[in-house]
Amino acid sequence: MGTYGRFPITLVRGQGCWVRDHRGRRYLDAVAGIATCTLGHSDPAMRRALSQQLRRLQHVSNLYRIQEQEDLARWLVDHSCADSVFFCNSGAEANEAAIKLARKHGHTVRGIDRPVILTAQSSFHGRTLAAVSATGQPRYHAGFEPMVEGFETFPYNDLHGFEALLNRMEANGPRVAAVLLEPLQGEGGVNPGTVDFFRAVREHCSQRKILLILDEVQTGMGRTGCLWGYEQLGIEPDAFTLAKGLGGGHAIGALLVQQHADHFQPGDHASTFGGNPFACRAGLTVARELQRRHLLANVDARAEQLRTGLQTLVARHPDQLSGVRGWGLLQGLVLREEGSFQAADVVKAALDQGLLLVAAGPQVVRMVPPLVINRREVTSLIRRLAAALESLQA
């Protein structure tokens, strides 16, 4: 179906941070399947692990215990604030599970008949109907109305706006079941959360027994230089969602919860494919390789190099570029609204230079390379991006 505006190349092979198209042309991949290919392409550890898994067992359904699933759940619990995990297949599905969990919390803990979830403007939580209803960007709603009820939005990082909405919603008794936020808004323009805002939201939620749920679909699994984006903010959520980087390019999502938020009972929620042996082996491989290769340290080092290079480009093109923002290897190059080109133009020009980038709205170019990217490759990224900007300026 015609749901994608694709670029006119077919990618057929990859190795590390590089991919080749059907004509044999080589590209440096700073998209990584949209922040998904944590270990890059055709990683040797991933190849070995998944080849061995296919010789044993790939899928049995959740009618039975699955050792790989339990092993991955144990790793996630041991390395986060969570106590238990529900596995599914994507970020949207993980957020759907979180929405259901929030509604059950609203009914059973706060005694609300029609629970409301507060989300941020410019957020993005997925394409399924409930997840897109939670998304605070009207352009994703257009043509699919009516949206699922039970969501209200406020400006991101705006404590006054949040408190005003919360107080209005709760003026006549409990109505809010949860607050759902991204630690850093990716699709909405690479907007990092502020520590003061998130700490204040955490305090409000704790006081009222409202769940604080973080959408870590893009920020989780080391992308920001910490395992979890919430570590950048100095708080712990009641629940958070994962996908993208968790599977290193294979389909898996997860909802992680602390014990007090673990409201699901047998039959409340389910997934046929969720947490199958193959997907969980992929997740386990990513998790163990993050540790074995000390990739969080690499993210920090390469992030500083990338940020410095991007700031140099901003200084070189002050009429077109306004700044750099982001965490770790989730960086955004911000274009001026009054400039002569937009993010999509930069992405297209970079493609001509053998560099894959992705837009995050009309004014931000997003860079989310594999976490294994090295110093030489970051230098190449900056050089190719510089050439793309020069070609546009010309």
Characterize the overall form. Answer: globular
Task: State the assembly state of the protein chains.
Answer: single chain
Distance between the ends: 37 Å
Q: In the CATH hierarchy, what is the superfamily of the largest domain?
A: Type I PLP-dependent aspartate aminotransferase-like (Major domain)
Strand order of the largest sheet: 4-12-11-10-7-5-6
What percent strand? 15-25%
Q: How many separate structural domains? A: 2
Helix content: 25-40%
Succession of helices and strands: EEEHHHEHEHEHEEEHEEEHHEEHEEEH
Unreliable residue runs:
none
In the CATH scheme, the class of the largest domain would be Alpha Beta
The count of DSSP E runs of length 2 or more, i.e. the number of strands, is 17
- Most strands sheet: 7 strands, mixed
Structural summary, described in words:
- The structure is a single chain.
- Helix 9 (295-316) runs parallel beside helix 11 and helix 10 packs across helix 11 (375-393).
- The radius of gyration is 21 Å and the shape is globular.
- It has 2 domains: 11-30 and 294-393, Aspartate Aminotransferase, domain 1 (Alpha-Beta Complex); 45-292, Type I PLP-dependent aspartate aminotransferase-like (Major domain) (Aspartate Aminotransferase, domain 2).
- Helices cover 37% and strands 18% of the residues.
- It has helices at 32-35, 44-56, 67-78, 91-108, 129-134, 159-169, 195-208, 277-292, 295-316, 343-352, 375-393; strands spanning 11-15, 18-21, 26-29, 84-88, 116-120, 151-154, 176-181, 184-185, 191-192, 211-215, 239-242, 253-257, 321-327, 330-335, 355-356, 358-359, 364-367.
- It is built from 11 helices and 17 strands.
- A hairpin with a 4-residue loop joins strand 16 (358-359) and strand 17 (364-367).
- A 7-stranded mixed β-sheet has the order 4-12-11-10-7-5-6, sandwiched between helices.
- The protein is of the alpha/beta class and 394 residues long.
